[in-house]
Structures are given as C-alpha cells and as structure tokens.
Amino acid sequence: YLFTRFSIFVTLLYKINDFQTMQKYNNITSLLKKKYFILIIERMYIQMAMTKQEKEAAIRDRLVTGFKNWNGGYEGWLEWCNTLYEEDAYYNVYGQRLTLQQYKDLMGKMFEHYTMELGEFHNMIIEDDWCAIRYVVNIKNLDTGEVRTNMTMEFVNFKENPEPIGMRVVEGWANSSNPL
Q1: Coil, strand, or helix at residue 58?
Q2: 107-124 mean pLDDT
Q3: Does position 33 have pLDDT exceeding 60, yes or no?
C-alpha cells in the first residue's frame, strides 16, 4: 500500500520535473525502498523468532510426541527421526560421532536384533536450545529372549526453524547404563 502511494507520488514528480530532478528522486526512491524492505525483513525476523519459553515448550513437545512414535518399531522411529533431526545433524552414541545417515543405519541394525521401547522420562531439563533428558529404555534381545532395562541420558542441542518444521536436533550425545 505504501509503495503504491509512493509510486503514484514519484510518477507525478517525473511528469512535472526535468530529467536531472527525476534522477535525484529515483535515487531517493531506491534508497527508501531498500530501507523499507530491510525494515519489513527485520520485523518478520522478530516475529518469527521464538521466545525462550516458546523454544523450551517446542522442544518439550517434540520430545514427548517423539517418544510416543518411537515405540512403533524401526519404521516409527525413522518417521520420528526424519522430523526430529536436521539433515546434517550428528549423533554421538557410545563415544562415536555419527552422521544422521550412519545413526539411521546403526539403529536399523539394532532393530533387527532388539525391540526397544521407551519408558517414562525421569528428568527433562530444557534451557534455551539445550536439553538434558534421562529416561528408561526396555530392551528385548530377539535372538536370545533376554529382557533388560536401560537408563539412558542424553544431551541435545536444538535449532529453531520456521513452522511447520520447528525445533530440530543439530547434535546429540547419548549414553546408557547398559550399552548394547
């Protein structure tokens, strides 16, 4: 709307003034358009950026929702994985830093021999874009029938993305009481 009004004004000036004057107004118009565009982008960024509380709530929601999806086997885990992690994310498992694809491959092999069901959260501490969680994993070895319970601790760094993507993992570190 403002640009339309301004354009009409500038057009009238062009019709009234000589070429030199038009050149001057054209430079002013360009400058004003650039400044106005930057202002719009800055306002959009401010509106887009989440508050600390919104980030933390989004991380909590992402984890709670994800835990429900995890218990659907490898396919359920993979579906969650594709929404939880950035494409270039890393996950550190038992001291190994894995790319997301390496992590997916590792989990695929583990799901071939184990069922892994996530139990309840014991602790979840979220501060800005960092999260520490401690939770139960119930594991059954499909080859031997052995059942065990692991306590797992993770530290996770998230990245804010515009909706509908939301908060996603950039890098995480996990360790369990009884590694597989």
Answers
A1: helix
A2: 90
A3: no
